[in-house]
Amino acid sequence: MNLNSYLFTSLGLYLFSYISYYLLSPGIGNKEKFLQMRRFLPCAFVATLPAALDNSSVFSKTFFLPLETGLFWCFAFPIFYYVSKHKTAKFFTWHFDFAFGLYVVAWLSILEILFSGHGLMTYFLVIVVSLVEFFLLFIVLFEVFYYITYKTVISENGIMAMLETHFLEVKEYFTSLPKFLILSAILITVGMLLYIFHFNFMVFALPLRSKLTNSEFSLMLVLLCYLTFYLWRPVPEEGLFARTGFIELYINVKDYIKSAGLYKENHFMHLKDLSVSSDINKLSNPHTMILVIGESASSTLMSAFTSCEKNTTPWLKEHAGDDDFCLFSHAYSCWGQTVPSLERALTEFNQYNDKVFNKSFSIIDIAKKNGYTTWWYSNQGYMDSSSTPVTLIAKSADISHWTLQDANVKQYDSALLEYLKKIPTNQNNFIVLHLKGSHYNYKSRYPKKFAKFGNPAEYNLVDNYNNSIYYTDYILQQIHQYASENMNLQSMVYFSDHGDVPDRRRQPDYSGFGGLRIPLFVYLSKEYSKTFSETARALHDNKDKYFTNDLIYELICGILQVKSQNYELTNSIATKEYKWTRETLRTNLGKTPLTEDSKAKLP
């Protein structure tokens, strides 16, 4: 080993990595600076040690791929985070990414040195090492693609959106992308995999490049065992890989989903403690209550709520002035993604209290306690009961069913009408219908005959979105008509999980109010309005007040005339006691006040 060359190379790598870390870590204090200054020394010296023991250099062609893999990991997440956040965040540091990247250079280099030229063992190690390098570089490539697509670093919201997205929705998203972009991504990925395997087969097939002394061999073996344990230990607090930026985000999201999964366990444990009383049986029996959950519907582009050029909601607009209908002009989503929005909308858990989802009661629980047979029919993608909070709530209904997710058949929301018609009418029913609505890709959400706006043959985001809203209006009309004529419909509520801005690429993170303004309407039968006149009057009196959809639970409780310790009367826009105003309501999961919406139509 050439000691001078080793020291010079190590010092150069140390200075390069530490200075880069320092420049990409705004706001770090002196203690942190000096702490990482010391920590980076062993990282750099260990990274170059295996190559030096092999009488080579870490910068030589032989060790190019280990060095490339490690340095890409060092810089990818920290650079994208810095570019995205340095103007707003006052402090962040990603020293674990640098440490992992440098140590993984050493780990891969040791494997290359120790197992080159050993026959079948070599081929097995080539496959293992190549897959590890591909895995690490693929994550880096994904971060690059994500940044190019959304102009921001990947976040927990982005990861959550991916984990909660059904396979068919992923397929629709990719088929909507330009074919050239898809082909390029495939070629780059396949090319990267082939390059990694080719490089490693060439390098590992080489005979031993130098004779290691017994002490050098022992040192490498000890270092390999230590790095394997230190880098890949699965305990998040101890394994270095698990503490890097991207992986830490992923683990946080998985922990959240796991925590949400406790809902099922807590639900059965605590449901017996839920006490509910109500006067709802003053209505004639049997009767039906319906909640329709929309998808990505923006009130800004719905003619019943906004003076827009195109009449996208003719049925609802026709009834906007009826006494039986109450359209709310200032409704907002609490967040721009389905699951975080609906886990709050459908339970006690909201932006304004300290409750948690997995210990909260839902509208399904309330309806059951009121004696209703509960139904949940969904045209959304189905995941098993351990996946998303929305699925957990849905499966707590007496009957829950999802439309068939056949990749060869487009499932339109009209499929839910057929399920509705199968519900017995000789009992009190509480029905939730979860629409696909205006979920991207918009053009896949409606039959061709509903392509009212634009050229049906053209792919135009705004026209396609308007057509999906037009189709949703038709579905709402059909639901209302059938239930009124056949099910003694007493109340029908419609709201959307969040909105959308069709001519702007949707962001997983908060990106303004455009995707948060949503429709909300309540229909009450004449019998209901007469029987519970105070509720009907309160709804009409409050229709121009501000509202966020994480208070839907309280709205439903108000309509069902609930009295319970698990219902806050002043949170319900169906009561005269409703306390919330534009100045006190928030969105963006409690971070952004509604007063920041400069385009809101003030009453």
From TrEMBL:
Keyword Cell membrane: yes
Membrane topology value: Multi-pass membrane protein
SUPFAM superfamilies in alphabetical order: Alkaline phosphatase-like (SSF53649)
GO biological process: lipopolysaccharide core region biosynthetic process
Signal peptide start and end residues: none
GO cellular component: plasma membrane
InterPro entries according to UniProt: Alkaline_phosphatase_core_sf, PEA_transf_C, PEA_transferase, Sulfatase_N
Subcellular location: Cell membrane
GO molecular function per UniProt: phosphotransferase activity, phosphate group as acceptor
Principal subcellular localization: membrane
Membrane-spanning intervals of the chain: 6-24, 65-84, 96-115, 121-148, 180-205
UniProt entry keywords in alphabetical sequence: Cell membrane, Membrane, Transferase, Transmembrane, Transmembrane helix
Residue span(s) of domain Sulfatase N-terminal: 288-541
PANTHER family found in the cross-reference section: INNER MEMBRANE PROTEIN, PHOSPHOETHANOLAMINE TRANSFERASE EPTA
Protein known as: Sulfatase N-terminal domain-containing protein
